From TrEMBL:
Domain GST C-terminal, chain residue ranges per copy: 163-293
GO molecular function terms attached to this record: glutathione transferase activity
Gene Ontology annotations for the cellular component aspect, listed alphabetically: cytoplasm
Organism expressing this protein natively: Aphanothece hegewaldii CCALA 016
Protein name, UniProt field: Glutathione-dependent reductase
Binding sites annotated in the UniProt record for glutathione: 91, 124-127, 142-143
Chain positions of site Lowers pKa of active site Cys: 247, 290
Active site (catalytic residues): 58 (nucleophile), 189 (proton donor/acceptor)
Amino acid sequence: MMTGMMIEGKWTTNWNARDQKGVYNSIPTTFRNYVSADGKSGFKAEPSRYHLYVSLACPWAHRTLIMRELKGLNQVISVSNADLILGEMGWRFSQTPESTAEKVIHLQYLKEIYLKADPKYTGRVTVPVLWDKLTQTIVNNESREIMRMLDVEFASLATRNIDLYPYHLQQKIDKTINAIYQPINAGVYHAGFATSQVAYNEAVIELFEHLERWDKILSQQRYLCGEQLTEADVCLFATLYRFDSVYYSLFKCNLQRILDYQNLWNYLKELYQIPEFKVTCHLQHLKRSYYMSMTEINPNQFVPMGPIIHFDEPHDRDRDYNV
Ligand SMILES: N[C@@H](CCC(=O)N[C@@H](CS)C(=O)NCC(=O)O)C(=O)O
């Protein structure tokens, strides 16, 4: 989703995220501080100190919401949900049945929150954002790092005893998160926002090669890094969950549906059926958000009625993988 960006503290809608070949490039995230358990980073993990700004449509923000649920951090970290539509002025927070007014610093737009953290900010204004109420600044706006902080640094405040970054799997988890990032998590956006046939073709071919590969791996093991649910699964889930409803049609990632992959589809159902994943899933909201916000690729803003997806159907993932 793209609207404007901030240059030296000024909002502009006059920019293009594509290069001359029509390839969509993501701009690196800029707030990269870290909350730590001991506070040595300058940001100590403490209850009620931090706030998350998210959109329920956004797959990157979705990672952080799932982690917050899995760790049982709901009372520790508060959340604001952005309005359904990402408009010309970027994400906005107002009180509607589907979004929450911004009650922490009492600002309407996410860009105002970025400016409060850095009046000369240059970069995209994206969710998720982890805000520190104590020092009144953005700690971090990179989903992968926020997810990791909630998992590791907030562990002593967690009310659920689950570790998604276990010591013996750490290298594998990092490698896997990296391996799925470019071709799959970002790959759907590269396809959807490409402005040349060549760039679109390349993104789609790469995307489906990687989906195929992970489908095979998941025929031999239950989760991406083996027999244990990890952060890497959270990262893949957020993309797979949106795939058949949004990326297949709106972004033209349509060589196959996730439903057509025996293992990816059953894996997706299994994760969806975990209560802490399910409460973060809002398919109707996210469909409307994508189809109505992305006027560049869907100018009439129609929202398709289908497909009807039975995420609650039984899955086959509790089978024996050693045979
Ligand atoms: N690198 C960021 C990317 C986040 C991102 O692209 N968020 C999108 C929503 S899905 C956004 O806020 N876009 C607003 C914009 O580009 O103006 C992360 O993983 O946290």
